Sequence to fold (97 residues):
Amino acid sequence: MTITIAANAVPKPPAEIIEGFRGAPTSVISDNLGRLPGAVGLKPYHRGAKLVGTAFTVRTRPGDNLAIHRALELVGPGDVIVSMAAATRPARWSARS
Fold:
């Protein structure tokens, strides 16, 4: 199976900008982004502490985790993997520190 990597050299925002979001409620961030519906249906695998970082997005088919394994090789500290397996399923996220 071929994995298409759309962009793997996107510049990350400075750490202080990412950290600035840690204290902001999700609703405030949404309001300031024009209420873009990009995060509808997210389901966390990580519970407890807040998760703040740069999104590393993965889209794949249900039951096919090869792209997620490849993403694990490409992410770095502070990245948050956001994966979607089909348009009808909620996205899942995880963090790497």
Notes: The radius of gyration is 14 Å. The chain has a mean pLDDT of 75. The first strand starts at residue 43 and ends at 44.
